[in-house]
């Protein structure tokens, strides 16, 4: 299984490509959504990497995949400027397991 990045930020894609992770550049939200839905269907993809801003754009679709499927694993990473939402991790844990830390 391979990792695959989907992003609207060329710098993020370049950085991930330097570490051996392939990806695709998306021009807009519709392109982002289309590429995400196509990529999740590929059997050889085990990990999809999205930046936080891209995740926020297609959060509904990503959440559906996370709830319904075990693979691919979908990971959200900070963008070039770091985390936009400083409480992202706490909110994610609360939404995932219903426990407030």
TrEMBL record:
A UniProt-annotated Pfam family: ATP-synt_F
InterPro entries: ATPase_V1-cplx_f_g_su, ATPase_V1_fsu_sf
Record bears the keyword Ion transport: yes
Keywords: Ion transport, Transport
Coiled coil (residue ranges): none
Family of this protein: Belongs to the V-ATPase F subunit family.
Protein name: V/A-type H+-transporting ATPase subunit F
Species per Swiss-Prot/TrEMBL record: Peptoniphilus koenoeneniae
């Amino acid at each position: 299984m391979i990792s695959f990045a989907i992003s609207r930020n060329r710098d993020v894609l370049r950085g991930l490509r330097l570490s051996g992770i392939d990806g695709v550049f998306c021009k807009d939200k519709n392109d982002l959504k289309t590429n995400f839905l196509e990529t999740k269907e590929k059997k050889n993809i085990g990990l999809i990497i999205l930046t936080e801003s891209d995740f926020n754009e297609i959060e509904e679709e990503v959440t559906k995949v996370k709830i319904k499927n075990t693979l691919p694993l979908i990971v959200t990473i900070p963008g070039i400027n770091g985390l936009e939402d400083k409480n992202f991790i706490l909110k994610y844990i609360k939404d995932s397991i219903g426990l407030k830390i």
